[in-house]
């Protein structure tokens, strides 16, 4: 900064000397002119030499440039401080930084070079490696959409509608059949029969239940048509299958955590969206009539991410659409102090709000079933 100031002062000094020389030259030329005018009225006015004018313009341009672009001391000081501390701090809101780290965005791929290198280490124009687990590791760490590859995805050798097991690559999973999954995970919906799906959402055993027939009646009474929905964390697509039988199209978001959830959804003739809960839903604004949040949406999601998630649901819901929280799990104190106020920020109408204690609760855990309707106009 001191060198810059010295250079500026030197230029100003040179400019001042040159200006004085030019002024003296011009003054002497003007005096000679008046003297010659007395002697002869026909004498012509002498002009300033071009090389002096060019030098003067050059000096003035340099002075203007330096004075115009000279950085303000306070600005330069703050800029230098920001440059020094950029690696340790930021002026961006903390919640935005948290979300940028947790929410899957493609730019996060560079944060995991080892996993990314392993994912992209394949032979072009051949079969893709068996790396389903690696894919989900990258997705959950923010590397989604995944980089494109020039290899062919693996498929079952002899798929058959009559044999559900033949539609799954079982090498990824501990169980090797749907019977194993039904026995090991009886409550996760791997019984793909339609009657099983219908019965799961038709019974009313407690205040936490919301049968589909009641849901459709509520919508009909409000003159609200249900045509398109999304089941967030919908597992094997049981809810989507039950709604399909009632001519309602429901997309299911799911992840294959040690079981073929996406394959199970597809075998029902439904669409599985292989996305985590943190991702912005790949759906246009204001086009969905219903969003159901299953048991995957609960208190284990970080609070800040949960708030972004709710507002993304609001983004895709149309005015008059419904948000259904089906057995949202949390501690009672957290529901009252954190989640209920967070949900209240949406400004939705409470059509149903039922809270019940967890049967074997030891720390005050509760379940919430809520049906909320988005305002028609903000």
Counted by DSSP, the helix tally is 13
Q: What is the residue-averaged pLDDT?
A: 81
- The strand line-up of the biggest sheet is 3-2-1-4-5-7-6
Q: Under the CATH scheme, which architecture of the largest domain would be assigned?
A: 3-Layer(aba) Sandwich
Q: Span from first to last CA?
A: 54 Å
Q: Give the DSSP E fraction (strand runs of 2 or more residues).
A: 5-15%
Report the CATH C-level class of the largest domain. Answer: Alpha Beta
Shape annotation: globular
- Tell me the CATH superfamily of the largest domain: Vaccinia Virus protein VP39
Radius of gyration: 36 Å
SSE succession: HHHHHHHHHEHEHEEHEHEE
Q: Which fold does the CATH topology of the largest domain refer to?
A: Rossmann fold
Tell me the quaternary state: single chain
Tell me the total number of β-strands: 7
Please outline the major beta sheet: 7 strands, mixed
Enzyme class: transferase
Keywords: Glycoprotein, Golgi apparatus, Membrane, Methyltransferase, Signal-anchor, Transferase, Transmembrane, Transmembrane helix
Protein name: Probable methyltransferase At1g29790
Subcellular location: Golgi apparatus membrane
Offer a concise description of the structure:
The protein has 378 residues and is of the alpha/beta class. It is built from 13 helices and 7 strands. It folds into 3 domains: 2-70; 95-140, no CATH class; 189-373, Vaccinia Virus protein VP39 (Rossmann fold).
Describe what this molecule looks like in 3D.
The chain has 378 residues and is α/β, with parallel strands linked by helices. The chain folds into three domains: 2-70; 95-140, no CATH class; 189-373, Vaccinia Virus protein VP39 (Rossmann fold, 3-Layer(aba) Sandwich), CATH 3.40.50.150. 43% of the residues lie in helices and 13% in strands. It is built from 13 helices and seven strands. It has helices at 2-39, 50-69, 73-85, 94-102, 113-119, 132-140, 178-184, 194-200, 212-221, 238-244, 261-267, 303-316, 332-344, and strands at residues 228-232, 249-253, 272-273, 288-293, 317-331, 349-357, 365-373. A seven-stranded mixed beta sheet has the order 3-2-1-4-5-7-6. Strand 6 (349-357) and strand 7 form a beta hairpin. Helix 1 (2-39) runs antiparallel to helix 2 and helix 5 (113-119) runs antiparallel to helix 6 (132-140). The chain is globular.
């Amino acid at each position: 900064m001191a060198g810059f100031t010295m250079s500026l002062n030197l230029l100003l000094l040179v400019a001042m000397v040159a200006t004085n020389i030019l002024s003296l030259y011009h003054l002497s030329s003007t005096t000679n002119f008046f003297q010659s005018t007395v002697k002869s009225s026909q004498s012509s006015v002498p002009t300033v030499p071009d090389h002096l004018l060019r030098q003067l313009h050059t000096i003035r341009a340099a002075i203007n440039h330096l004075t115009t672009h000279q950085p303000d001391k306070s600005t330069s000081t703050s800029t230098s401080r920001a440059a020094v501390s950029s690696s340790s701090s930021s002026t961006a809101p903390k919640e935005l930084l948290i979300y940028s780290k947790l929410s899957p965005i493609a730019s996060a791929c560079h944060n995991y070079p080892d996993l990314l290198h392993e994912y992209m280490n394949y032979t072009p124009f051949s079969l893709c490696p068996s790396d389903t687990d690696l894919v989900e590791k990258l997705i959950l760490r923010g590397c989604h959409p995944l980089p494109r590859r020039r290899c062919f995805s693996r498929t079952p050798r002899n798929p058959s509608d009559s044999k559900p097991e033949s539609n799954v690559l079982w090498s990824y999973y501990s169980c090797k059949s749907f019977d194993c999954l039904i026995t090991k995970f009886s409550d996760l919906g791997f019984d793909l029969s339609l009657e099983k799906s219908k019965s799961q959402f038709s019974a009313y055993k407690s205040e936490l239940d919301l049968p589909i027939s009641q849901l459709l009646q509520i919508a009909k009474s409000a003159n609200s048509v249900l045509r398109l929905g999304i089941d967030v964390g919908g597992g094997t697509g049981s809810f989507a299958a039950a709604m399909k039988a009632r001519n309602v199209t429901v997309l299911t978001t799911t992840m294959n955590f040690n079981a073929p959830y996406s394959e199970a959804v597809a075998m029902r003739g439904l669409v599985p969206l292989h996305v985590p809960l943190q991702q912005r839903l790949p759906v246009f604004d204001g086009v969905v009539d219903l969003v159901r949040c299953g048991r995957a949406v609960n208190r284990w999601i970080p609070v800040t991410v949960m708030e972004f998630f709710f507002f993304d649901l609001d983004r895709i819901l149309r005015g008059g659409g419904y948000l259904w929280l089906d057995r949202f799990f949390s501690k009672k104190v957290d529901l009252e102090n954190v989640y209920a106020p967070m949900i209240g920020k949406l400004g939705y109408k409470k059509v149903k709000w039922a809270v019940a204690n967890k049967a074997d609760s030891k720390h005050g855990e509760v379940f919430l079933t809520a049906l909320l309707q988005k305002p028609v106009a903000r």
